[in-house]
Amino acid sequence: MSITYTPAEPENFHSAFPEIEPYQTGYYAVDNEHEIYWEQVGNPNGLPVIWLHGGPGSGNSDSKRQIFDPQKWNMVLHDQRGCGRSKPAAETKHNTLQDLINDMESLRQHLGFEKWWVMGSSWGATLALAYAAQFPERVLGVVSAGTFFGTQTEIQNLYSEHGFPAQLYPREYQRMVQFLPRTLRSDPMAGYCQMVRHSDEGVAQKATLELSRWELTVLDIVPDWDFINTLEYSAELAQSMLVYTHYHQHNYFIDPQNPLLEKAAKMLKNIPVFIIHGQYDILCPVKNAYALHDAVPQSKLTVVSNAGHRSGNPMYKSALIQLINEQAYDADIQHKAA
After folding, report:
1. Which residues are tagged catalytic?
2. Where a domain ends, among 252, 279, 311?
3. Angstrom distance (rounded) from CA 193 to CA 138
4. Do 111 and 230 sit in the same domain of this protein?
5. What is the rounded CA–CA span in Å between residue 130 and residue 78?
6. Are residues 126 and 266 in the same domain?
7. Final residue belonging to a domain, choices 201, 233, 252
8. Between β-strands 73-78 and 35-42, what pairing exists: parallel, antiparallel or unpaired?
9. What is the rounded CA–CA span in Å between residue 296 and residue 293?
10. How far apart are CA 121 and CA 28, in angstroms?
11. CA angle at residue 267 from 266 to 270, to 5 degrees?
């Protein structure tokens, strides 16, 4: 077992790399309905890697280009079905976990990679693990940040009055629940799955905002209250919440009889796996990272002090940059040398 705990005040702080533009972009038709946006960044001859965004529904951020050394990596970033710049926006038909896995594999073939690293945060980590478990022969290694398994225990923790987030932020939880009609308050997330699709556009917009505010409250170790309290409705926010609630309604398309953790334990035995998690993550508790580390014996776990779930947290980002560009990259070089 290999576990590293980052110091509260690290001696070496790893800054993001300079802003960089893609050297290639495009749309790829994965079926008759969906076209996914993709881009390649960095060194065309570098080590191939795909970074998978969270949500589900978030879409990729340009800032994620800056966590990779552009001299070392040939980065692929894409927006999952219905997300970001992919078309059609917010489309949930034929949008399942298996569809996203198939899209990744089709995109790998389209770009001509024999194998690649798969990395992601939160829902992106879920997708990375699911893809690697199905196509281990196409995976050079995995980085799982802020691991989420899509279990009912995790979901109930976030949306139940008995969950830790509700205990830590009781006023904010109360506000989120009390927006709903009384008949929907017993299961808040099921209620929001209805309300963000309400026939009254004004009601749907308010529901989108309230749900987003709760999600943002629990995202980091210290909430950005100014941003949360001034958050305004946008088409992008609605797009994200429509895809997010779609996946929630279907239990993230993960069979509870065939848990993701068990599949990962069986299929990732011979693949380098790096796990990183914020110590104070209340959205996806750190015990998820320990469970994955225990299930995959060769994995290496980094626990980030003074960090929650948000990978953009300065402490978290520094540790993630170091892990990707030193530990993961060096592990690949050492493996090839052997």
Report:
1. 122, 281, 309
2. 252
3. 36
4. no
5. 17
6. yes
7. 252
8. antiparallel
9. 5
10. 23
11. 110
